[in-house]
Structure formats: structure tokens, C-alpha cells
Specification:
Layout lengths: L2 H27 L1 H9 L1 E6 L8 E2 L5 E2 L1 H13 L2 E6 L5 H6 L5 E2 L13 E3 L4 E10 L17 E5 L3 H9 L4 E5 L2 H9 L5 E5 H10 L4 E13 L2 E3 L3 H14 L3 H12 L1 H5 L4
Parallel strand pairs: 1-4, 1-5, 8-9, 8-10
Antiparallel strand pairs: 2-3, 6-12, 7-10, 7-11
């Protein structure tokens, strides 16, 4: 066989292989959305304890801004919604393992996370702030606590933890499994300050006005996104289309007002 024919055969085989691989990739990318529609159910991963985005009420039901977003997604898809609870650090592994279809958990969009999951467009803008004990009337900034002998804590696996590790030079940085545990350590005098998302600090401050004080100058600005499996293009496209019509709608404005503004009104619903 002539060399030109051999080369031609290899070229044809290469095209066929690429075409087949592309078809498989397209099928995989569309898999989650197809799975949801066929099952008639979307399974959403959540990490209750991130006020006011995802919490558990007295009846053990999921409530919060993110839960409203997930319920609205289910309505738009015409499917039932099931929530599954994980620690925040376990959400992405659960997504990779196929235990959940998507995760809505106040997750900040970062370059590192985007290497392992695909994000929707941002659905909420927030930032990190500092919380100190109420009796601490002198601290005005995180910089005031960045001294040897001081302890600043954050929940593990969250962007607040990465931020603290990056900016704190002298104080000791500690990490607790959840925000409630981190805040409790502050109240109990184990630490001197907490760095966390502003909405969560606002809610905790409203619940414990005699114990903590929020310092609401933003340390960083972050965008929250809904995450699905990496390169799941069909799912990302659908989520972005949904968010385009949902954010700013009467339903979303009512949800945001309830959870972010009228905090005292719903605190009694919690455990």
C-alpha cells in the first residue's frame, strides 16, 4: 500500500475517532438534564447552616433563599425537588459521585472550583466580613486582630477560609466544620473573631444581639453560583436561562426581601 493511502486511512480513522468522541462528550454533557426530566425529579445538594441561604426549620424541612431558588427551578422544569444534606466540603464530592444532580449552597465561584465543576452565571453577590464578641468595642477591622496571640476562625472548605489564610499574617487561623460551630466558639471565648459571608453574619447578629457584633466593611466581594458536573453544557445553559428570568422577578424579590431584610420575622421558624 502506498504511503499516501496509509496516511489517508489514518486521517479518516482520526476523523471518525474525533467524531465519535465528540458525540460521547455531547451525550455526557446533556446527561444531567435528560436524567432529571426522565426521572421527574431534581436532586439538589445543600449544606444547612448557611444563614439565610439554607437552613432547617423546626420540622426538619429545608428553608432559605437557596431553597426558594431550587424550588423555582423544579417548577420551571415541571419536576419534583429533593434536597440532600451534606457538610459544605462534601458537596462537590457528592456531585462527582452522582449522589446529587446540582448543588445550591451559597458557593462562591472561584477558578479553583471551576476546574472540577461547571458554574451557572452568578445568582447572588455577597462578601466576607468580620464578627467579634459584643464586649469587644475596640476592633474596627480584621487588621486590628491580625496580631500574635489572636485567633481568627472560619468554617472549613469555604472561601472565607481561603481568604483568611491569604490575608492573616500574624494571628492564628482556625477552621471549624460549620459556621454555627465557628460562631459558638466565638461566643464561648475560644477565638477573637470570625470571617464569614455578610448575610450569615447579619442573621447571626440578629439572633444573638447581646453576644456578637458584626463589622460590615467588606473584606472581599464574591459571586455565588449554582454548580453542576464539569462541562455539562446543556445543564449550564438551562440554569443560565432560568436565572435570567428568575432573578429580579416578583418571586425572587419576595424571597430576597424575606430572607435578607425581614430577618426577625422568620427566626422563629428555625430549630
Amino acid at each position: 500500500m502506498k504511503v499516501s493511502k496509509v496516511l489517508g486511512l489514518f486521517l479518516v480513522l482520526g476523523v471518525l475517532i474525533c467524531t465519535f468522541a465528540g458525540a460521547l462528550s455531547a451525550e455526557a454533557a446533556e446527561g444531567t438534564l435528560d436524567k432529571i426530566l426522565k426521572a421527574g425529579k431534581i436532586v439538589i445538594g445543600s449544606a444547612p447552616g448557611y444563614y439565610p441561604f439554607e437552613m432547617m426549620d423546626k420540622n426538619g424541612e429545608f428553608i432559605g433563599y437557596d431553597i426558594d431558588v431550587g424550588n423555582a427551578m423544579g417548577n420551571a422544569l415541571g419536576v419534583k425537588v429533593e434536597y440532600r444534606q451534606f457538610e459544605f466540603a462534601g458537596l462537590i464530592p457528592a456531585l462527582h459521585a452522582g449522589e446529587i444532580d446540582i448543588l445550591i449552597a451559597g458557593m462562591s465561584i472561584t477558578g479553583k472550583r471551576a476546574l472540577t465543576v461547571s458554574f451557572s452565571n452568578p445568582y447572588f453577590e455577597t462578601g466576607q466580613v468580620l464578627m467579634v464578641p459584643k464586649k469587644d468595642t475596640e476592633t474596627k477591622s480584621w487588621k486590628d486582630l491580625d496580631k500574635k496571640g489572636k485567633k481568627i476562625a472560619t468554617p472549613q472548605g469555604q472561601t472565607s477560609s481561603l481568604l483568611a489564610e491569604a490575608i492573616i499574617k500574624e494571628a492564628e487561623v482556625l477552621h471549624f466544620p460549620t459556621f454555627p460551630e465557628t460562631a459558638l466558639a466565638l461566643v464561648n471565648g475560644q477565638i477573637d473573631g470570625v470571617i464569614y459571608d455578610q448575610p450569615g453574619i447579619i442573621v447571626y447578629e440578629a439572633r444573638h444581639p447581646d453576644e456578637v457584633r458584626g463589622i460590615h466593611d467588606l473584606i472581599s466581594l464574591e459571586n455565588l453560583g449554582i454548580a453542576c458536573r464539569l462541562n455539562d453544557h446543556a445543564m449550564v445553559q438551562w440554569m443560565n436561562s432560568f436565572l435570567y428570568q428568575y432573578i429580579g422577578s416578583p418571586a425572587e424579590i419576595a424571597s430576597r426581601t424575606k430572607w435578607m431584610v425581614n430577618v426577625i420575622d422568620w427566626l422563629k421558624e428555625l430549630n
